[in-house]
Write a structure and sequence with these properties.
about 190 residues; alpha+beta; about 25% helix; globular
């Protein structure tokens, strides 16, 4: 199967990857976040138009396997498992999240966030995530911290999220890997 960076429909996000990697490294540094020991399990895109999401979908269909397609917060979100991982810093991402546009307008179409897995009690996720970040970093102008609990139609695991953003890129923290969440959709016992 074809490498994702060679697919015509994905050339804009191939070109966007260096910008994203640099912005992510800068945000991590501002937050005092040591990313080296952390597991990031997937990377996500954002777009403004359905036509862009459909184009990216056609591209990923040529280089990845569809893991899940679900309605979350009123919009479709597809998860693709790449045949060739995408590299950002020391991470090798096999899973890409492709959401269709929602109500929020993002400043940039392209790569927008990574999701870090902090295994443990979902009720302590926020405290565990915030403990990794410096107080000075969190109090800087333009840094926004948001909590949420996105949920797909059939998810059975509680999946709280703590997101930290500078308006350009975002780092999200979850207690479960995305593949655990997808598996919970299939399993009646989760």
């Amino acid at each position: 199967m074809t490498h994702w960076q060679t697919i015509e429909e994905l050339q804009d996000i191939t070109a966007d990857l260096p910008r994203f990697a640099g912005a992510l490294a800068a945000l991590s540094a501002r937050l005092g976040l040591d990313v080296a020991p952390l597991e990031a399990d997937h990377i996500s895109l954002r777009c403004h138009q359905n036509t862009t999401a459909e184009r990216w979908r056609r591209g990923f269909e040529q280089c990845a396997q569809l893991l899940s397609e679900n309605q979350i917060n009123g919009r479709p979100i597809c998860l693709y498992k790449l045949n060739t991982p995408l590299v950002v810093g020391h991470w090798h991402f096999s899973v890409v999240e492709l959401p269709w546009p929602g109500e929020k307008r993002y400043p940039h179409e392209g790569w927008e966030h990574i999701e870090i897995v902090l295994p443990g009690d979902p009720q302590t996720l926020n405290a565990r995530a915030l403990a990794l970040l410096s107080d000075d970093g969190l109090s800087q102008p333009g840094i926004v911290v948001k909590t949420s609990s996105p949920k797909g139609e059939h998810e059975r695991l509680p999946n709280p999220t703590l997101a930290v953003s500078d308006g350009s890129v975002t780092i999200k923290f979850h207690p479960w890997s995305i593949e655990d969440i997808v598996a919970s959709e299939m399993s009646p016992d989760a």
